[in-house]
Amino acid sequence: MNKYDYDVLYIGAGHGTFDGAAPLAKQGVKVGVAEEDRIGGTCPNWGCNAKITLDAPVKLTREQENLKNILNGHTSIDWSKNMKHKHQVIDGLPKAIGGMLKSDDIDILHGHAALVDKHTVKIGDKTKTAKNIVISTGLRPHRLDVPGKQLAHDSKDFLNLSKLPKQIAIVGAGYVAMEFATIASVSGAQVTVLMHHGQALRRFYQPYVKKVMAEMKKQGVKFVPNANVAGFAKSGDHLVVKYGHSKQLNVDYILDASGRIPNVENIGLDKVGVKYDVRKGIAVDDHLRTSVSNIYASGDVIDSKEPKLTPTAVFESTYLMKLFSGQTKAPIDFPIIPTVVFTSPRIAEMGVPVAEAEKSDQYQVVHHDLTADWYRQVDQEPVADVSLVFNKHHQLVGATEVSDKADDAIDTLLPAAELKLNKQQIGRLVYLFPSIASDAWMNL
Ligand SMILES: Cc1cc2nc3c(=O)[nH]c(=O)nc-3n(C[C@H](O)[C@H](O)[C@H](O)COP(=O)(O)OP(=O)(O)OC[C@H]3O[C@@H](n4cnc5c(N)ncnc54)[C@H](O)[C@@H]3O)c2cc1C
Ligand SMILES: NC(=O)c1ccc[n+]([C@@H]2O[C@H](COP(=O)([O-])OP(=O)(O)OC[C@H]3O[C@@H](n4cnc5c(N)ncnc54)[C@H](O)[C@@H]3O)[C@@H](O)[C@H]2O)c1
């Protein structure tokens, strides 16, 4: 007879949970998953999958634009058909993910979950106990605290817009702002990006970010650096963004893309003694254990220097699966986690950042203008640059690319850096020709 209802009870059903929970349950571990919203969490429902589906015709439009001297005619994006397609692709995912969890005998508990004590969780009006608990509650959009803030929308609202507004103001210049500005402007909206600082995508290599911005400007996107947004108001049938020294911008829609904050409130952390920071998230050790020994945390809600991305959440939930099933006792050892911003062109990076490498004598940085490559000329890519970072043994340790194919190029280079391949090993790898992989590896 088990002392607890579950061996492991997860709070939240995003990637920080389900990629590990399903294989854990397959091994005979009794698992419960509490979720107050859609199964699958942010990424499938209002993040990666939804965004990349809307981006598909945007990417195609970019490719057509690059080849416009060859193609006849002009195409445009039908927003409502694109949104309908997004729903067709996305709407079935919670059922599919939930079905997968149930088929592994996982109990799905619907409702808001909060810790009652270190082994007890209240989910709606049900109370369940567990030997171990994993908090995987993710992030939610940060909202600017300015007058008229209720007039602004967040990324979730944007991804469900049935009609594309004509004029859009986007506050912030991070991942969401830059990706959604691209989607909206290529789809026909006039977009103004109100930047908090003088730089967009601050963690990325700035010479490449400037190239992305230049392409977005050609598409019609306006950037206002150091905008200092003061508030929003309604005036007749339009909205007004007040910024700078008494400047105003009239728009039909305001997207607040000023970042994301951890879901740490109202889940009983203080009651049970789990340490956290309201801005950074839940503190964990190198086994993803919180300050309470049987309570762990996974995914975006963790206070960590790892990027808050789906691959990170997947790696963490998979690590916890191995820990709970006795496959490992070792601390978590993060691999290189690559990242990409799905603008047109994309900017993608992995490993040691170029700006950091340029400041150190431990690395050598090699820049390549890829527009000179015959393979990139096939698609007439106007912007294509890569910077490769090598260590003293000439092993690849980092790379950043700006191009329409940057995501695929960085993915293909990743094993060289993660596995620290030497020249001889690299020489053993033969790629399809012609392909982005053979093109990317040519420079190693
Ligand atoms: C617009 C957007 C686009 C993105 N695009 C990408 C991308 O292209 N690539 C990429 O790698 N990453 C992307 N991300 C980031 C990615 O979505 C997250 O890193 C990932 O979803 C994190 O998973 P998670 O399980 O930690 O959190 P989430 O997926 O947010 O899951 C947390 C879950 O917990 C639930 N929950 C919270 N509190 C409670 C409670 N008290 N009781 C019960 N349930 C609760 C929530 O409802 C939610 O379902 C994007 C994010 C956004 C917002
Ligand atoms: N392609 C991807 O992988 C992808 C796409 C979207 C989101 N994400 C994930 O979601 C996270 C959140 O994305 P995001 O774009 O919301 O956040 P972000 O941290 O990338 O960008 C937030 C932006 O808001 C600005 N800002 C902060 N405070 C402000 C203020 N008071 N006024 C005006 N602007 C302000 C920042 O300067 C920054 O430009 C990302 O960090 C990433 O982890 C990933």
UniProtKB/TrEMBL annotation:
Ligand binding (FAD): K51, D300
Any one Pfam family match given in the protein's UniProt record, by short name: Pyr_redox_dim
Q: Which residues form the Pyridine nucleotide-disulphide oxidoreductase dimerisation domain?
A: 337-437
InterPro entries, A to Z: FAD/NAD-bd_sf (IPR036188), FAD/NAD-binding_dom (IPR023753), FAD/NAD-linked_Rdtase_dimer_sf (IPR016156), Pyr_nuc-diS_OxRdtase (IPR001100), Pyr_nucl-diS_OxRdtase_dimer (IPR004099)
Details of cofactor binding: Binds 1 FAD per subunit.
Detail which positions bind NAD(+).
Answer: G172, A173, G174, Y175, V176, A177, M178, E179, G259
* Ranges of residues in domain FAD/NAD(P)-binding: 6-315
Write the record's keywords in alphabetical order, separated by commas.
Answer: FAD, Flavoprotein, NAD, Nucleotide-binding
Q: Which cofactor does it need?
A: FAD
Q: List the disulfide bonds.
A: C43-C48
Q: Give the SUPFAM superfamilies listed for this entry.
A: FAD/NAD(P)-binding domain (SSF51905), FAD/NAD-linked reductases, dimerisation (C-terminal) domain (SSF55424)
The entry lists its GO molecular-function terms as: nucleotide binding; oxidoreductase activity
Q: Which family does it belong to?
A: Belongs to the class-I pyridine nucleotide-disulfide oxidoreductase family.
| Protein name listed in UniProt | NAD(P)/FAD-dependent oxidoreductase
